[in-house]
Amino acid sequence: MHIENRLRKELSKRLDDNNLRSLKINHGVDFSSNDYLGLARNKDLHQLITGKSVEYPLNGSTGSRLLSGNNEMCEELESQLAGFFNAEACLIFNSGYTANLALISSIAKRGDTIIYDELAHACIKDGARLTLAERYSFKHNDLEDLKSKLNHAKGQIFIIVESVYSMDGDEAPLKEIIQIANSADAQLIVDEAHATGIYGDKGGGLSSLNGMEDQIFARIYTFGKAMGTHGAAIAGSNVLKDYIVNFARPFIYTTALPPHSLVAIKESFNYLIDNIDLQNRLKDRVAYFNLLYTKYLSDTFTKIDSSHPIQSIVIPGNNNVKKAAEAINNKGFDVRPILSPTVKSGQERLRICLHTFNTDDEIYALIDTLADLK
Description:
This protein is an alpha/beta fold. It has helices at about 5-15, 45-55, 70-85, 95-105, 120-130, 145-150, 175-185, 205-210, 240-245, 250, 260-275, 280-295, 320-330, 360-370, and strands spanning about 30, 90-95, 115, 135-140, 155-160, 185-190, 220, 230-235, 300-305, 310-315, 335, 335-340, 350-355. The protein folds into 2 domains: about 45-275, Aspartate Aminotransferase, domain 2 (3-Layer(aba) Sandwich), CATH 3.40.640.10; about 275-370, Aspartate Aminotransferase, domain 1, CATH 3.90.1150.
């Protein structure tokens, strides 16, 4: 079969299953992006980044960190981030996806065991697949199932979870998972992607908010969500940083972030620390949405319980949830349907993201539009 015929056949199958993906330009009031704190569109922050960027005239980094792409600014930023995240060291990556691939694929060896939450992000699962370790998933946030999987573990054990899950918006029970990891002599990895910036007085996520940093082997922070910029970092020990630099292929063979991106990360964290009340404003937006949902929609829809900006309303069936999203889009709101197989069949949902810049009137109008779908 000619390769393009095979590709067309697979695309046709997606179309038949009503889950064919396509690119779309955002329109309407933003209830879909991960720009929770509004930093991606913050004009004051933009001016700060632009002003500082002129001090670093290079357009690109010119190479990987191990060749020509390292510089004093990057090392200073890593030291600054380590202080923010209460870690010995940080290592910057081009994305959270790459950071997880690098970390997991390099540290787990043949004879080891990786156990991850079944709702962990694709990059965590892909990183595990790149190893020769045994791999198990445990039921979402199910501590008894995690313990059960540990009974099959051998070698060095790695437990991997997200602090906040990207599709459900719920939190991992980190305190209990830490206790389980300690009792099993397992190393815990926590992806703080959807908690970075939102929690902690310097944006260090749930682990920092709860003072758990020194009980976690490695944490992954992503800057393309609430921080409004791009890139990521792994926080851990100096030994872990040195190991990744020497053994993680996604780090060794990737061109480093350009100076502008480094400036953007630095200024974004400085801005957040100076405007930390943004976190409270975001909490207010979430509380207002949940109040209206309980009052007007709870008898009609099923919503996954969440105090995070990610609010998921379950509408089973790809066709059903796509129709619901289209109706909402037509009213001027940018809300996206999440289809299977991204989520399990029967768990298709509207993924609504709340932001500091969403007004009371906009949130009320969105709830009113949802009510019309009854």
